[in-house]
Amino acid sequence: MPQGKVDPANIPDDGLTTRQRRLLPITAVHTGPGKGKSTAAFGMAMRAWNQGMNVGVFQFVKSAKWKVGEESVFRRLGELHEQTGEGGPVQWHKMGEGWSWTKKQGSDEDHARDAADGWAEVKRRLLAEEHDFYVLDEFTYPIKWGWVDIDDVVESLRTRPGRQHVVITGRDADPKLIEVADLVTEMTKIKHPMDVGRKGQKGIEW
């Protein structure tokens, strides 16, 4: 496992000490057609919770009526923190009422408004330093669909105050989002059981 050692030839000339660089905020993007983008982000959020960080999860696409397994776990972790002080506080928010892949409910105007309102709330929280760790789940899609302005997102991420970490998931990440990120991972599908007609399974897809 990497130990965070820096090649002397690659030490940035930024005037910061090693400790100061260790405390810099991270913008991470998990993109690509493969499975596991959100799962990896929630794994990072669990590490953040264990370090006592204030975690905020914002789901931008999955239906508000669809309860994923991670939601139950993180809500319970938030309760555990309230009861015992272990870990950190957790908030879980769903943006919209079902504007998912099929977008069955509401008009495109409704979905666009929900997405814009959701991003406005995240932006407000970033400015207020309300959380230490943000998961913006499936956030690449409202950007791709033109419901959220990519330039506003990039500027807000680039200029956010403090040490707030932000992890963004979803396919087809905008090149500007990739450019502003510190950590970008592309999930590449090699095989998937659904390719041969198998259905999603408990403990795997949800």
UniProtKB/TrEMBL annotation:
<dbReference type="Pfam" id="PF02572">
    <property type="entry name" value="CobA_CobO_BtuR"/>
</dbReference>
<dbReference type="InterPro" id="IPR027417">
    <property type="entry name" value="P-loop_NTPase"/>
</dbReference>
<keyword id="KW-0808">Transferase</keyword>
<dbReference type="GO" id="GO:0009236">
    <property type="term" value="P:cobalamin biosynthetic process"/>
</dbReference>
<protein>
    <submittedName>
        <fullName>Cob(I)yrinic acid a,c-diamide adenosyltransferase</fullName>
        <ecNumber>2.5.1.17</ecNumber>
    </submittedName>
</protein>
<dbReference type="GO" id="GO:0008817">
    <property type="term" value="F:corrinoid adenosyltransferase activity"/>
</dbReference>
<dbReference type="GO" id="GO:0005524">
    <property type="term" value="F:ATP binding"/>
</dbReference>
<dbReference type="InterPro" id="IPR003724">
    <property type="entry name" value="CblAdoTrfase_CobA"/>
</dbReference>
